[in-house]
Amino acid sequence: MTKMPVSPKAAVKEVQDVSSLAAKAFASMFRRPFYVRDILTQMDIVGVGSLTVVMLTGFFTGAVLTLQSSKTLTTFGAVAFTGQLVAVSLVRELGPVLTSLMIAGRVGSGIASELGSMLVTEQINAMRALGTDPIKKLVVPRLLATTSMLPVATVMADAMGIIGGLFTSVFVLRISANLYLARAWNGLSYMDLFGGLLKPIVFGATVAIVSCHCGLRTYGGTQGVGRSTTQAVVVSSILIIIFNLFLTRLILVYTR
Amino acid sequence: MTEPILEMKNVVKYYGDTAVLNGISFSVFRGETKIIIGASGSGKSTILKLIMGLDKPDAGRIFVEGEDITKFNERQLVSVRQKIGMVFQESALFDSLPVRENVAYRLYELGVDEDEIDAKVRQSLGFVGLEEAIDKMPAELSGGMKRRVALARALIGEPEIMLYDEPTAGLDPVTSKKINELIITLRDIKSVTGVFVTHRMRDAFTLATEYATNGGRQISFHTEDNFLCIANTRFLMLRDGAIIFEGPDEVLRRSKDEYIKRFLA
Ligand SMILES: Nc1ncnc2c1ncn2[C@@H]1O[C@H](COP(=O)(O)OP(=O)(O)OP(=O)(O)O)[C@@H](O)[C@H]1O
Ligand SMILES: [Mg+2]
Question: Is B110's CB within 8 Å of A126's CB?
Answer without folding.
Answer: no
